[in-house]
Amino acid sequence: MNTFMASSFGPALPEIILAIGVLVLVLVGAFMGNRSNWIIGTASFALLAAALLAVGLTPPTRTTIFAGSFISDDFARYMKALVLLGSAAAIALSSDFMEREGFARFEYPILILLSTIGMMMMISANDLIALYLGLELQSLAAYVIAAIHRDNVRSSEAGLKYFVLGALSSGMLLYGASLVYGFTGTVSFPGIASSLQGEASIGLILGLVFLSAGVAFKLAAAPFHMWTPDVYEGAPTPVTAFFASAPKAAAMAMAVRLFIGGFPSITESWQQIIVFVSILSMVIGAFAAIGQTNVKRLMAYSSIGNVGYALIGLATGTQAGVQGIIIYMAIYLAMTLGTFALIIGMRRGNQYVETIADLSGAAQTHPWRAFCLAMMMFSLAGIPPLAGFFSKFYIFAAAIQTGQMMLVVLAVIGVLTSVVGAFYYIRVVKIMYFDEPKPGFEKLPDGAQAVLIACSVVVVFFWLIPSPLVDSAAHAARSLFH
Amino acid sequence: MPDDALFLISIIALPFLGSFIAALLPTNARNAEAWLAGLVSVGVVAIAISFRPVLAAGNVVRAEYAWLPEFGLNFILRLDGLAWSFVVLIGGIGFLVVLYARYYMSPADPAPRFFAFLLAFMGAMLGIVVSGNLIQLVVFWELTSIFSFLLISYWNHNQTARDGARVALTVTAAGGLCLLAAMLLLGRIVGSFDLETVLTSGPRIVSHPLYLTMLILFALGVLTKSAQFPFHFWLPRAMVAPTPVSAYLHSATMVKAGVFLLARFWPAMAGHEYWFWIFAPIGVATLLIGAFMALFQQDLKGLLAYSTISHLGLITLLLGLGSPLAAVAAIFHIMNHATFKASLFMAAGIIDHEAGTRDVRRLGGLYRAMPITALLATVAAAAMAGVPLLNGFLSKEMFFAETIESHVDTVLDKALPYIATIAGVFSVAYSLRLIHQVFFGPPAKDLPRQPHDPVLWMLLPVALLVLICLLVGILPGPTIGNFLAMAVHATLGPQTPTYSLAVWHGFTPALFMSGVAMIGGVALYFALQRYLSGDVEGVPILGALKGKRLFERALVFLSWRWARELEQNAGTTRLQPQMRLLVCVTIAAALWSLFSRPGSLDFTWPSSADPAFVLVWLVGGICAVAAAYQAKYHRLVSLILTGGAGLATCITFAWLSAPDLALTQLLVEIVTTVLILLGLRWLPKRIEGLDPDMTPKARLRRVRDLLIAVAGGAGLAALSYTVLTWPIGNSIASNFLERAYTEGGGRNVVNVILVDFRGFDTFGEIAVLAIASITVFSLLRRFRPARDSIELPAQKSFQNRFDADRYTGGKDPLSAHYMIVPGLIMRLLFPVIAMTAAFLFMRGHDLPGGGFVAGLTLAIAFILQYMAGGTRWAEARLRVLPARWMGFGLLAAAATGAGAWFFGRPFLTSAFAYADIPILGKVPMASALFFDLGVFSVVVGATVLILIALAHQALRVQRVSSDAAAAPPTEGSR
């Protein structure tokens, strides 16, 4: 029995740890109610740490289990580690928020953990069914988290919108999956890949289009981005921080697995779709963000734009492109979580404020926080030597390396939109440094402070020792192109 | 060599380290800051000088560190003659600026910030010149943009300083991104990011198809940084910076970064006509426009700013010409310009400092009050004008000589000597104006302060620079000869031409041009003197050419108005349009992929169809469409129509010989319809049909939605049809058909799949069903009906009134008679239906039926009882509670599964045998039957539990309405 477990369930150990842990925590919560908040919060961290350890101990070799549905390789390990760290940060960010806003519930960390299991499944999915299961587990938990502040109209609205649109897009994805299955006779990615010889049939292409629509929705890439600003604005800030971080990485990993793992021989067919989505996301992310007054909406558009950049890497379909994506997502996570840690600190006179104008003159009232936020903004704008520059650099370099005209043009558009993007990021800096100061904010909660410090270190000092991240990303990318 | 590497890295590291330390010093430590910054600059120059012998021999010093190895990117430092001369310029003038700034900055200004930024800027600038790697170069390039932004906005309480800094940053940082793109392209063309390799692959670069694209991007980067027309507008705006900053940024550094890059890549890129056609016209335009506009400036620093633009145009033009001799002239002029312009800026700062104004018209006759400053400024201005025996003369002479040469045989080339002379005339005129109007003429009367010469330390830097101007001008060979030779040789390598650095070349055309420029300039100034001293603001003719305003307007349009409009028109926070967009985009994407490629869907119409079957489908389809149409207006009708569509599905299953599916579908239809019907009661009232006063716009909207629906529906149907008619590969279905009886012991394949082959799935599903019904129950337990649905439905209250009128005389309460006949029938039906359920259950393994179907059937029996007798009556007689049904079912299923363990088999392995039961005869007894019993039990329990939850609403509402009558409406929600 033991050898059986070790041999066949071993690679899924992180997921199993989390799943069993969550079930136990649900029971604890159910019997103890909200008194158990701190136990569950602490235990969630422990579980995430245990899962991270298990991910670390997973052998780097490529193994598939559950009849090939579940794959474990370097790519999966890397992305899972990223997702676990993102989820842990999301829980840490919520530490004081819920109490202060009066809706502390033990369900929150549990839902995050459930969502994390879903994300890890997405990352390790090696067939369409596993992918869909992971996706739904992630999404369903996310819908509930979006509406977790039930007495708040905006939060409820965010949850409802997310749910309705998410259900629609899941339907599309499922429809695409069934078309692909219908025309290839298999759901497993390697199976699909090997059944595609020569010209793809039109039905398969349609299936691919629907699949892409579903994936684009999960990534919040234009033109399926409409929900993002509303949900980001409406959901409580730690929840928004969560949405903007780990699920993005997981969805990107899923897209890589799906397109590069499942359809490697018909790259041109999906490349066009990805290029289109990427351009539209970058343009919308850059231009629509300018008019925003709410920080969370701004970050929503920023995330749309960032997904657009990361998709350039996917559009290349090369190992360098995937490496670019991996690095991009890691650095994006650090920048986003750091920024949200600061947004959570925007509390003044017993309530949270969210407009950009509220930051005015923060450099004088909170020099360190303003400095960190300025670094985050400069990094998001892609200004060297901050980490954000390198993430863009790897992506653009990968696009240009391919030498395809379309991708070179894509990279040029990327550079141009990042100029526009720089405009609004730097505007935040300008408001903080040059405008008349407003009354100070309250003390930053410990959780947010920890996240902020970690993220700032990554963003500011990445250029000193880039190799750990970059090298492991190279390994991860290589594992996809065995 | 390791020592070299250490020294090389400290050229960059020193300033950044200094910057870091400077930032940590206390606010008032002006002297410490100045010492620190001064030592750093001196250190940089000293290191540079230590390298001189190596470089003079024509060598290149390199140091490499691993940086991003897997991208082939190393952190490379590379020092050659050109870089060396820039290091000396940056360090040397940096030192003088620091000295000057120590006395210029007021004690109230925060010193750490100033010196920290200045040193960091110096480090970034040094980083550009010693970078041996293209990407690294861009990194430092962008750093200079950022630090110049911080320096320009140093007095950040001042709105114009912030604006100026912002414009400078936007323009130069955007240019930097273009440069990044250019460098990536260049790296791709060459195959390496190493500068060494790039410099030696000139022919390959020039002949590459991407050359032009790369060159344009490169030009955008370089021209924005060097403030070339039409990007020149940021530079005058940056004059709001403290004067030491201006002196540094606009003489030896920032703006020189652009022309440095031009010189750096000159050997690699200049060998093509495109190079000439991009840089020469822009250089000419900038040269003329800058010189012209400088003449009409009333602000001392503005005048210097435009003259800087003009001189940079000159350098760009020289480099753009593409001839080695011109490149020599350009490099020489870069050095000369740095010295005299730095000293002039410092002099302007002194005047501003002492007199309190920089307006040329208000100043005058200052030579009396500040003779030393006047003398120094005059010499520097003369160098700028190109007066003989000063350094400016030499490089200008070379420039004039070069314009006469023919390069690319065009009109532009032929016109160059005249253009150069005209620019020279203006240059002389504005230099003369600067000196004459400020230091000579009638003394100014209403100056804010009483001017006098400043402290010695402030004059010293100016004096040193002016001295260099003089020395170079008089003795060019011994002073600057080697210096220039090193730089030129490093730049041009084997292409280095022979040139001579002499004051006197004899009577050459260039000398003649100089003479014309001198005389013309003096004449022009005195002709315009009256006009210029008058109350004129702005520049004639070219004044309309407001680059800055165009830029800002473009920025506002691009970044603000368009963005807003885009968001207003394309963005929405409403759910409906968002869904519409989602659907439309998907339809469009599908259509696009359908039409964008040859070939079509293999769409084969069925050869024949039974009319009756088609009719069933027509009815079903109509029901479905009508249900969708009525969904908003009449839920009951819509629900019934949905039932019709479901019925069509049932018939289809039966038609296609799947009676078991048909049976299941039918029962599911019945149960769900009834349950939804019960739930409908609590939804808000229905909307009465279409609004007759609907606007045409609303009608159009509905038509549009209809079209979307038709397109989406038709597309999905077509696709589903294609997939269904697609030849099936190796499906698992035949496998199930083969093994159902041999291994599962049943002929009803569906049932065998449910309870045996996929028993584990079913086990999970019944667990989910149980959980779902408990969830429904607990959610509805707290349900509070909406206010408007508390009242009795219209038809019921109507009936009640009718009954009340009719039976007022009777003794029994009305409810005793309510539905008495149907109620009785339904009660009698209960055992019959239960029997049917048992029958379906028992035969399920072989014939249509099974636990799921039987469970639904029994549930229908319960539903009938509720309908007939009412909630209270039915529940008073409910013997087995639904939760127990479900619990028993789950346990039974689990026990059956676990039973297999006792026989050493995996969970849920089934066994079957035939049991001989009296009367009934041989009955198949698969172990799966017990499992099926569990399924049956869970289905009954779950359905009844949901039924109870819904039915209880009726009781609660009565309570609510009676409470509402008795008590305030806030109470009584439970």
TrEMBL record, chain A:
<feature type="transmembrane region" description="Helical">
    <location>
        <begin position="129"/>
        <end position="148"/>
    </location>
</feature>
<comment type="similarity">
    <text>Belongs to the complex I subunit 2 family.</text>
</comment>
<dbReference type="InterPro" id="IPR010096">
    <property type="entry name" value="NADH-Q_OxRdtase_suN/2"/>
</dbReference>
<feature type="transmembrane region" description="Helical">
    <location>
        <begin position="106"/>
        <end position="123"/>
    </location>
</feature>
<dbReference type="GO" id="GO:0005886">
    <property type="term" value="C:plasma membrane"/>
</dbReference>
<dbReference type="GO" id="GO:0008137">
    <property type="term" value="F:NADH dehydrogenase (ubiquinone) activity"/>
</dbReference>
<feature type="transmembrane region" description="Helical">
    <location>
        <begin position="367"/>
        <end position="387"/>
    </location>
</feature>
<keyword id="KW-0472">Membrane</keyword>
<dbReference type="GO" id="GO:0042773">
    <property type="term" value="P:ATP synthesis coupled electron transport"/>
</dbReference>
<keyword id="KW-1133">Transmembrane helix</keyword>
<feature type="transmembrane region" description="Helical">
    <location>
        <begin position="298"/>
        <end position="319"/>
    </location>
</feature>
<keyword id="KW-1278">Translocase</keyword>
<dbReference type="GO" id="GO:0048038">
    <property type="term" value="F:quinone binding"/>
</dbReference>
<dbReference type="Pfam" id="PF00361">
    <property type="entry name" value="Proton_antipo_M"/>
</dbReference>
<feature type="transmembrane region" description="Helical">
    <location>
        <begin position="272"/>
        <end position="291"/>
    </location>
</feature>
<feature type="transmembrane region" description="Helical">
    <location>
        <begin position="325"/>
        <end position="346"/>
    </location>
</feature>
<keyword id="KW-1003">Cell membrane</keyword>
<feature type="domain" description="NADH:quinone oxidoreductase/Mrp antiporter transmembrane">
    <location>
        <begin position="125"/>
        <end position="415"/>
    </location>
</feature>
<feature type="transmembrane region" description="Helical">
    <location>
        <begin position="12"/>
        <end position="31"/>
    </location>
</feature>
<dbReference type="GO" id="GO:0012505">
    <property type="term" value="C:endomembrane system"/>
</dbReference>
<keyword id="KW-0874">Quinone</keyword>
<keyword id="KW-0830">Ubiquinone</keyword>
UniProtKB/TrEMBL annotation, chain B:
<feature type="transmembrane region" description="Helical">
    <location>
        <begin position="114"/>
        <end position="132"/>
    </location>
</feature>
<keyword id="KW-0406">Ion transport</keyword>
<dbReference type="InterPro" id="IPR050616">
    <property type="entry name" value="CPA3_Na-H_Antiporter_A"/>
</dbReference>
<keyword id="KW-0050">Antiport</keyword>
<dbReference type="InterPro" id="IPR001516">
    <property type="entry name" value="Proton_antipo_N"/>
</dbReference>
<dbReference type="GO" id="GO:0005886">
    <property type="term" value="C:plasma membrane"/>
</dbReference>
<dbReference type="GO" id="GO:0015297">
    <property type="term" value="F:antiporter activity"/>
</dbReference>
<feature type="transmembrane region" description="Helical">
    <location>
        <begin position="705"/>
        <end position="728"/>
    </location>
</feature>
<feature type="transmembrane region" description="Helical">
    <location>
        <begin position="138"/>
        <end position="155"/>
    </location>
</feature>
<feature type="domain" description="NADH-Ubiquinone oxidoreductase (complex I) chain 5 N-terminal">
    <location>
        <begin position="70"/>
        <end position="115"/>
    </location>
</feature>
<feature type="transmembrane region" description="Helical">
    <location>
        <begin position="210"/>
        <end position="235"/>
    </location>
</feature>
<protein>
    <submittedName>
        <fullName>Multisubunit potassium/proton antiporter PhaA subunit /multisubunit potassium/proton antiporter PhaB subunit</fullName>
    </submittedName>
</protein>
<feature type="transmembrane region" description="Helical">
    <location>
        <begin position="847"/>
        <end position="864"/>
    </location>
</feature>
<feature type="transmembrane region" description="Helical">
    <location>
        <begin position="636"/>
        <end position="656"/>
    </location>
</feature>
<dbReference type="Pfam" id="PF00361">
    <property type="entry name" value="Proton_antipo_M"/>
</dbReference>
<keyword id="KW-0472">Membrane</keyword>
<feature type="transmembrane region" description="Helical">
    <location>
        <begin position="507"/>
        <end position="528"/>
    </location>
</feature>
<dbReference type="InterPro" id="IPR007182">
    <property type="entry name" value="MnhB"/>
</dbReference>
<feature type="transmembrane region" description="Helical">
    <location>
        <begin position="415"/>
        <end position="435"/>
    </location>
</feature>
<feature type="transmembrane region" description="Helical">
    <location>
        <begin position="816"/>
        <end position="841"/>
    </location>
</feature>
<feature type="domain" description="MrpA C-terminal/MbhE">
    <location>
        <begin position="700"/>
        <end position="796"/>
    </location>
</feature>
<dbReference type="Pfam" id="PF04039">
    <property type="entry name" value="MnhB"/>
</dbReference>
